[in-house]
Amino acid sequence: MVLSDATAFPYGLRVLVVDDDPTWLKILEKMLRKCSYEVTTCGLASIALQILRERRNKFDIVISDVNMPDMDGFKLLELIGLEMDLPVIMMSIDGETSRVMKGVQHGACDYLLKPVRMKELRNIWQHVYRKKMHEVKEIEGNDSCDDLQIFRNGVEGFNERGLFMRADSDTMRKRKDMDKDHADQDSSDGATVKKARVVWSVDLHQKFVNAVNQIGFDKVGPKKILDLMNVPGLTRENVASHLQKYRLYLSRLQKQNEERIMGAARQDFSHKGPSDNLNLRSSFQEQPSNRSNGFQHSSQKIQAQTNIPDPHLDETKTSVTLKVPDKNGTSVSDAIDPQNITSASPLSGVFSFERMPVNQDRKLSETMILECQSWSGSVPPKQFMQYPKHNHERCDLLGDYSCLPKLDLEHPIAPGHLYAPPPVISMSCSVEGDVRDFSDVKPDLLDCMKSLSPALTCTVESVSAQLSDSVVTSTNSDQKFSSVEGLSSIKDCDFDQERNQATLLTSEEASIICGTDLTCLHDDLSGYQLQGVSFGNIGLNSIDLFQCNDAMALPGLQNNWYDDVEFSSETMEFPLLDGGLFA
Amino acid sequence: MKQGYLDEQFCQVEDLQDEASPNFAEEVATLFFKDSARLISNVEQALEKYPKDFNRWDAYMQQLEGSCSSIGASRMKSECMSFRDYCGQGNVEGCMRSFHKVKREHGALRQKLEAYFQLLRQAGPAGAATRPGM
């Protein structure tokens, strides 16, 4: 017998092998033992499920055959994913792409072809390891506010959270025993950042489903579910993570019934709202992209969003509601809204946005993405496309940033011209040569903005929204922006602002996550904005800031975009820039 | 033993043999023949009971093919594959022909392997190390 209790991490990995072929079972068992793994074998999927349910936390990974008489391997895979959250490796004699794809879709972490080789099995620990890493990342993405603390505490915080936060109440109680049982295992993991796994027992899962049903699928959020479930020890991110899985599971079921993928994606989007950004993203990807470059950015950003499930929305909600009243509170913007509709109506792009403010007025407490949802829901497909496009546009801005030189020609004075350039360039791009006109308009806008400024207490996000939007608007109707005068143009901007809050949340959250010097950033930006300077700059800047903060706080995540650190250091130069541009 | 009955997977199985289980390869082979006989009879029954139910035939034959891959029974496995190809084409004749070939290969492999293990036992532990050709 090979020693199952070895000293270092991969050794002693607890593997459950499920295969109806006894010969393979015998061979696999032997191979895995030779890898110093702890092996349990099982010839039937149903029994495997039973074993997994009875002996919770006793396995690290499951290897399952695809074709089994009592239960489809994919079904088993899905159940394991839903209840146990264990990595599952599928294996089969057939390597057809469609089969492999199906396995991956159902959540397989790997798909091995028979005959399975020893060297492949020797490596399976990587899936366990990877899963742990992802779980840590999930925490990162999951809690913007809570994680602030973690960020402050650094890795220490992570470890604490990971090691001492057990979810299941049962697990809590059993924790000590487990520690004894697997002390070596845990200590061997000490080097890695480990997050305790929540075991979703049948009961727990049922509670979860009940809670979801009670709340209603449209309004469901981890926080609410958590409250309803009332399980001690269970954390919101546990619920959020499970909710995401559950949604994926349901959407797969749903998709099977849908004829068209696109249809499915949209339906998911409108029906499930909050955290279905994933679907959103998929629909994005179906959009034709003007610039592959910019497009990539957009999807990347969305991806970031996916990492941030509903819980954050709850938190963001507060900031949103704060913002909205601010805007609506001012008589100017009140007056603006109705006017906006008329002024904007010719533009399909702007038109679709009109619904946003309405929504906000009606239901301030709605979460951001919900607004997006209703927005996309209320707008016919074509306009729905507008949404991605808008993001897209913003990313184009970022993309355009690379052609800095042009900028300098426009405003060579700006000391912080590292910042200033991008907006101008992008504007000239989108306005299609109407740059002159545009700058003519600017003074008017500035004046108006000045008059508005006292009332406006916009934060970075909304400002940035403004920017990217105004550009979008101008693209949609090249003439419009340049011809607008004074108030009306500002209205548009305001208007856009509101719409954009939703979309820009990501950046806000991201910056919250980073939590670096954000306060002073806000100050600078709002000061900047109050002076009623060009929208472009601010918006772009804040976007950049978002990225740069992001990059700084989460090294390796997005830092390949720009040399962002430089940007953040430039932040302080805003006021100077203002002076230069608008003196 | 060299006529392609077995492939490198069989070597893999033999390599798994150690002090803990000195007869591992033979145990696996025994298990394989027992189980593959069952799978073959499954296919046989399906061929009789469900005429032209190619999906069912294919499913059963896939099980057998999987089993063949475990021990590296290459000739048998390739026959299984051609059976499944015929299933895909809806070729009953081809399926029947292939199936008989599968059975023949199964019998042949059994003979060869029995002889092989016999030889190993006679040669003793030293013979196992040199692994008399295949």
From TrEMBL, chain A:
InterPro entries linked: ARR-like (IPR045279), CheY-like_superfamily (IPR011006), Homeodomain-like_sf (IPR009057), Myb_dom (IPR017930), Myb_dom_plants (IPR006447), Response_reg_B-typ_pln (IPR017053), SANT/Myb (IPR001005), Sig_transdc_resp-reg_receiver (IPR001789)
Polar residues: bias regions: 276-308
Residue stretches of biased makeup (Basic and acidic residues): 169-185
Domain HTH myb-type: 192-251
Residue numbers bearing the 4-aspartylphosphate modification: D65
Single GO term (MF): DNA-binding transcription factor activity
Ranges for domain Response regulatory: 14-129
GO BP term, example: cytokinin-activated signaling pathway
GO cellular component entries: nucleus
Subcellular localization, as worded in the UniProt entry: Nucleus
Keyword Metal-binding (UniProt): no
Alphabetical UniProt keywords: Activator, Cytokinin signaling pathway, DNA-binding, Nucleus, Phosphoprotein, Transcription, Transcription regulation, Two-component regulatory system
Region (Disordered): 169-190, 267-314
Domain of life the protein comes from: Eukaryota
Chief place of localization: nucleus
Family, similarity comment: Belongs to the ARR family. Type-B subfamily.
Chain's role: Transcriptional activator that binds specific DNA sequence.
Protein name per UniProt: Two-component response regulator
Provenance organism: Miscanthus lutarioriparius
From TrEMBL, chain B:
Subcellular location: Cytoplasm, Cytosol; Nucleus
Superkingdom of source: Eukaryota
Pfam (any one): Hpt
GO biological process: cytokinin-activated signaling pathway; phosphorelay signal transduction system
Keywords, alphabetical: Cytokinin signaling pathway, Two-component regulatory system
GO CC term (a single one): cytosol
Major localization listed first in the record, in broad terms: cytoplasm
SUPFAM superfamilies xref list: Histidine-containing phosphotransfer domain, HPT domain
InterPro entries: AHP1-5/YPD1, HPT_dom_sf, Sig_transdc_His_kin_Hpt_dom
Gene Ontology molecular function: histidine phosphotransfer kinase activity; protein histidine kinase binding
Coiled coil: none
Domain HPt: 28-111
Functional summary from the UniProt entry: Functions as a two-component phosphorelay mediators between cytokinin sensor histidine kinases and response regulators (B-type ARRs). Plays an important role in propagating cytokinin signal transduction. Functions as a two-component phosphorelay mediator between cytokinin sensor histidine kinases and response regulators (B-type ARRs). Plays an important role in propagating cytokinin signal transduction.
Domain comment quoted from the record: Histidine-containing phosphotransfer domain (HPt) contains an active histidine that mediates the phosphotransfer.
Protein name (record): Histidine-containing phosphotransfer protein
Native source species: Miscanthus lutarioriparius
